[in-house]
Specification:
Blueprint (H helix, E strand, L loop, with lengths): L2 H5 L7 H5 L3 E6 L5 E5 L2 E5 L7 H46 L3 H7 L9 E6 L2 E6 L7
Antiparallel strand pairs: 1-2, 2-3, 4-5
Amino acid sequence: MNGFELILPFLRPIQPLVLDPEISETMVNGPEHVFIERRGYVEQVQDVSLSPKSPEVAVKNIARRLAIGFWLALVPAVGFVLLIRRRAQLEDEFLKRNLPGYNDYAKRVPSHLLPDPTVGRITPKGWVCCRVGGRCAE
């Protein structure tokens, strides 16, 4: 069921207008004022009215469906973030085992998987880690 089919039952009085292929737009301006655009001309439709609650219920149903879609999309996104984090841990472990000097570097420079206000600079003594707005460790 797409979003259109979800709200159409709440708009039964204008359903024939919405489904008419000759009508390019259906506009509702309050429960008593329904307009259509057909062949480039806008005209008011007589004898059609909606209950004041119909548009409100339709909008709530659309919002509910979007919210459910958001939460369902969040589940794989969290899984993806956890997967990236695990990969970063595996890479870090590999570098500690196989890259000379990386252990020392990793102790001085925190992980940058998440934003961190840390910068580094190279001095004659080697790499120095600095906190932004703070002093550098010498």
